[in-house]
Amino acid sequence: MHNSLRRALVALLALVLGALVLPLGASAAAQETSDDAPQVRLARATWDTGWFQAEVYRLLLERLGYQVDGPTTMDNAEFYAAVAEGEVDLWANGWFPAHDVFIPDDAPVSAVGTTVDDGALQGYFVDAATAGAHGISNLGDLSDPAVAELFDLDGDGVADLVGCNVGWSCAATIDHHLETYGLTATVEHVQGDYSPLISETIERYRAGQPVLYFTWTPNWTVGELVPGSDVVWLETPFPSLPPDQASALDQTTISGIPGCANDPCQTGWPPNDIRAVANTDFLAANPSVGRLLEQVVIPLADISAQNVRMVTTGGDPADIRRHAEEWVAANQSTVNRWVSSADPDAVGIAGPSVDESGPGGTLKVAARALPPFVIYENRTYSGFEVELVRLVAAKLGMGVDIYAVDTTAKQIDDIDRGVARLGLGGVAVTESREEVVDFSLPVLDSGLTILVPNDSSRGIGDRIASFFRAVWSSDLPWLMIVFGVAVLVAAHLIWLSERHHNPDFAAPYRRGIWDSFYWSVVTMSTVGYGDKVARGTRGRVLALVWIGLGTLVFASFTAAIASSLAVNELRSEISGPSDLAGKRVATATHSAAETYLPSIGVGPVLVGNIDDAYPLLLDGEVDAVVFDAPVLQFHAAREGDGEVTTVGSDFQRVQYGFMLSPDDAELREHINLAILDLVENGIYEQLHDTWFGPQR
Known about the structure:
This protein is of the alpha/beta class.
């Protein structure tokens, strides 16, 4: 009885407390992480294009009431061994049937649900323009040397197929295809760092050049070069796979492939389902998790769109988490249904626990391409930070092994796991990044700057074109319309008044209206040659009125022209941030400048990539570009060709540094000492001036 009474009192107290807390928001209870909450150890794959799904699953598990440990990055073999041993519980990055080889028949591992059904596709692509012009629809077409030469990048007469990194499973399949289809004499499999290679491929496409490459979905590349629009799939001559994949041979012909010449399309690769994979014992002990995993579906288009956003913005870990949160919020009703169906009594908790530990490794550098910090051309790395890190490594008696990544998040994760010991590529030192990685001493102290046209380089044609653009953007076109209408009205009125008794205004309309139009213009402009004058009373009264009104119209017209000329000249008078008010200023999205410009009252013209802002500036569509000073200074010095220049001092200071693991304190100390030595002996200054010009 006493126990029953005690339980009743506890329940009553809980109700009272709940009533008091409820007005503060039902979500408050859901945001408290309990030590008693069940835990799930979440893993994720090494490819950062799959991290968005991992973050979505983390949020869903938290909604279900689980405290999430991770996600911890693992490669395929490592994960499947760990999940079979119960060292981790699940991940969202299973590809099937490709991952079947990692799961022994008796392993306690289960694929649960299907996040993307048959969405993981792979294949070969060429740009649609070249395919249409030369009738290319099959990989076998490249056996023709004339066709293959269209895609020759290095002048050796054979096609360069941008493929997979050495060691990737797709690399073996590509080599198998080239040999099986008799293409080894006309096609070269270009292998290296896939990220910069595919970025170069996209730039060649934008420049109107032929492209030939391998890619997969979901991946940001299919958002940049859209199959069926920008590029087309290449079929393979017949199904063929390496011996270890022979069981999937009948799955390489796929229906509904956009941009393929035939339907079904012989892609040469089997499709894969993207599925969650979990430890079977864990699922038995946590049936609500299994019910949740069985329901989750993320549209392939959403994953691809996020991958594009991630790569375009640089992809900090916070960005990827935010993308997942935005997706969950946009699909709130669906998410609620999944969670409610998995556990109607679920009470969500908050707060991912991030594993920030990671062993050190050999000196390997994860670089993100951002000229002038890191430049990847002709399969070679260069740039200010690339040269600086080589100088630093030489001081330490070490070699440098650089590989490319697309996002800052990938750099941080690789450093955290010990895959890389250094990260570079114009990485600004920020508080959020300092929470997960350490930085060297600043390798560059810079900020934002302003890029404007170089007036001394403008010819008479440019100035005339700039004037007409200023005129078109002013009120002058409307005044010209008013001017024309007023002249026509006055011409008709004087003709109607004078046509019967004044030979200066001939009676036939076609002739008379022209004479009247001539009189209206010269009278309004106060030129008044006197060769045509009104003789009747009504005509003279009209002439007096028109002289007065016409003077006002013509004066407004003249003032508008003068104003346009003045505005056109003033727009070039930008020497600092204080001159930007009222100007048209371009910058890149998700940049420091995008945040800064509204603070000084400037609504920026936003572009996805800073390279897209330069043509706007040269065409007069914007008056200035504001962005990171090193990037704009490099463009002005190297690619601006004297047409643009940076003005004023840098503002909104930003410091850039090398990223290192918090556990690599010894290496950080050596690097800092090497940087200081380079500064003190003048080598750093020479390097800086080479890339950015003398320091102001």
